[in-house]
Design goal:
This protein has 563 residues and is mainly beta. Helix content is 9%, strand content 37%. It has six helices and 32 strands. The protein has a six-stranded mixed beta sheet, with no helix packed on it. A six-stranded mixed beta sheet has the order 21-20-25-30-27-28, with no helix packed on it. The protein has a five-stranded mixed beta sheet with strand order 11-19-18-13-16. β1 and β2 (48-55) form a beta hairpin. The longest helix has 15 residues, at 10-24. Pfam families: Cu-oxidase, Cu-oxidase_2, Cu-oxidase_3. Belongs to the multicopper oxidase family. InterPro entries: Cu-oxidase-like_N, Cu-oxidase_2nd, Cu-oxidase_C, Cu-oxidase_fam, Cu_oxidase_CS, Cu_oxidase_Cu_BS, Cupredoxin, CuRO_1_LCC. Its EC number is 1.10.3.2.
């Protein structure tokens, strides 16, 4: 009888459960599903055709659209000859490192003919991020934008734009990028620089055979446009400007900023910048242009990529005007531009800067030279943090941590360099050997961390954009020369510092960042210049589990690729 009662009330019970589920789900949460087929396609640029790795045959790849609060499910199927993994750059992946994507850090790569589903929630983030391959140099062509809208009914904290456009900056090599890199590694030298920069995959009319490889956006007089600018280049920090038009910076790395107006922006590999542009000039055609910033004595691809901002009704026969970009070595512009970046820090978008620091880290960034009998000069160029060149493991570090697999890594990465020296004095050209190892730093859950990244003149000073996975951080200070722990912290901005996921360490200088380690897992931290990452300029943090029920790493998905 009791059983009969339960059965007869079954539909009512189910309905009640359904109502409870409805109430507990945020009103605007949705599941956004994407299928990414990694496939090789023949593409032609600069009068050269070559096969490139793409997603869904698109270059750049498809844009992912989501809202704050959505669940995003992306099934990646690999039809290319290379192993593949994809990183969702800037998404925090709370307790869910399995969806982060860097090969051999949080997963083994997806092999040819296999699939893996990246399943993650977008929590408390809105703005422009991006995705890219995170293995070898395949991100040269495997990349795309992520546009996250605020929750339904939440306006932007700036005037609503009429339309928005993605501006994804990249690099193009005429030859097979993986072959170019292999050649460089064989010689122990940097590979050849790229042959062009691109805007949305197109180099623009300053390059040969590029009439049809030019991106153009049409604007209407008096309207305001939001440009979502992403630097997907492998090795170049870039200046970007629109001829005749000012830009108002309103967001960096998917965090709102105090708006400011500028004629040009500086954007490092891995970074994003949202700007508002008003179509308030004489109707015509205006070039948008991107060109590298390099204030160290190093070779870069110094060519200018262009796209066209075209007022409605203006014929294509009108020649566009070029913008005035800062000079390639304009350090003063770079520093003054970076100094203008401030978090919005409004009641709705507070900058929760850690004021008390539990753990202070000081990492030196260095280039080095190690012996290599088969290389051109008997030596190989390398890179290190605290004189340690990171060695990639053969299984994912997150698996090793989660399943307690011994012998994959050691948790003894030093908090400071082995010996202090005059980091940014005259170039150091002797004793440039580094030690190698898969050494990680263990961080207690919910502790506050201050990390000072110090450039050095080992071989040469250079600007380095550093990216931390799994977190945003606050850029509380930066300076030229050696960091002074006695004097410099007094100048830190602890009120409204910029909050980012990728920060440029200035040439011959330092940058201080702070974050709260509230996301358990293994989180990669590396230079976003692909050249330096390949040379070992990387490490990872093991953030321990907390004691609470929702303070531990989630279990791995069933389809996690095998090693």
């Amino acid at each position: 009888m009791a059983m009969g009662k339960i059965l007869s009330s079954g539909p009512i019970l189910l309905f009640l459960l359904y109502l409870v589920a409805l109430v507990s789900l945020p009103a605007d949460a949705a599941v956004k599903r994407y299928q990414f087929d990694v496939q090789v396609k023949n593409v032609s640029r600069l009068c050269h055709a070559k096969p490139i790795v793409t997603v869904n045959g698109m270059f750049p790849g498809p844009t992912i659209y989501a809202r704050d609060g959505d669940r995003v499910v992306i099934n990646v199927t690999n039809y290319a000859q290379y192993n593949m993994s994809i990183h969702w750059h800037g998404l925090k992946q709370l307790r869910n490192g399995w969806a982060d994507g860097p090969a051999y850090i949080t997963q083994c790569p997806i092999q040819n003919g296999h699939s893996y589903t990246y399943d993650f929630n977008v929590t408390g983030q809105r703005g422009t991020l991006w995705w890219h391959a995170h293995i070898f140099w395949l991100r040269a062509t495997v990349y795309g934008a992520i546009a996250i809208m605020p929750k339904q009914g939440t306006p932007f904290p700036f005037p609503q734009p009429y339309r928005e456009t993605n501006i994804v900056l990249g690099e193009w090599w005429n030859n097979d990028v993986e072959e170019v890199v292999k050649q460089g590694n064989k010689l122990g030298l940097p590979p050849n620089t790229s042959d062009a920069h691109t805007i949305n995959g197109k180099p623009g009319p300053l390059f040969p055979c590029s009439e049809k490889h030019t991106f153009a956006m049409e604007v209407e007089q008096g309207k305001t446009y939001l440009l979502r600018i992403i630097n997907a280049a492998l090795n170049d920090e870039l200046f970007f400007a629109v001829a005749g038009h000012n830009m108002t910076v309103v967001e960096i790395d998917a965090v709102y900023t105090k708006p400011f107006t500028t004629q040009a922006i500086l954007i490092a590999p891995g970074q994003t910048t949202n700007v508002l542009v008003q179509a308030n000039q004489a109707p015509g055609r205006y070039f948008m242009a991107a060109r590298p910033f390099m204030d160290a004595p190093l070779t870069v691809d110094n060519k200018t990529a262009t796209a066209i901002l075209q007022y409605k009704g203006i014929p294509n026969t009108i020649l566009p005007i070029l913008p005035k970009l800062p000079l390639p070595n304009d350090t003063a512009f770079a520093l003054s531009y970076s100094a203008k970046l401030r978090s919005l820090n409004s009641p709705l978008y507070a900058a929760n800067v850690p004021l008390k620091v539990d753990r202070r880290l000081f990492y030196t960034i260095g280039l080095g030279i190690n012996p290599c009998p088969t290389c051109l000069n008997g030596t190989r160029l390398t890179a290190s943090l605290n004189n340690i060149t990171f060695v990639m493991p053969h299984i994912g570090l997150l698996q090793a941590h989660y399943f307690n697999i011994k012998g994959v890594y050691t948790a003894d990465f030093p908090d400071r360099p082995p010996q202090p020296f005059n980091y940014t004095g005259a170039p150091l050209t002797a004793n440039l050997g580094t030690t190698s190892g898969t050494r990680l730093s263990k961080i207690a859950f919910n502790s506050t961390v201050e990390l000072v990244l110090q450039d050095t003149n080992l071989l040469t000073v250079e600007s380095h954009p550093f990216h931390l996975h799994g977190y945003n951080f606050f850029v509380v200070g930066t300076g030229i020369g050696n960091f002074d722990p006695a004097k410099d912290p007094a100048k830190f901005n602890l009120v409204d510092p910029p909050e980012r996921n990728t920060v440029g360490v200035p040439t011959g200088g330092w940058t201080a960042i702070r974050f709260r380690a509230d996301n358990p897992g293994v989180w990669f931290m590396h230079c976003h210049l692909e050249l330096h990452t390949g040379w070992g300029l990387k490490t990872a943090f093991v953030v321990e589990n907390g004691k609470g029920p929702d303070q531990s790493i989630l279990p791995p998905p069933k389809d996690l690729p095998p090693c």
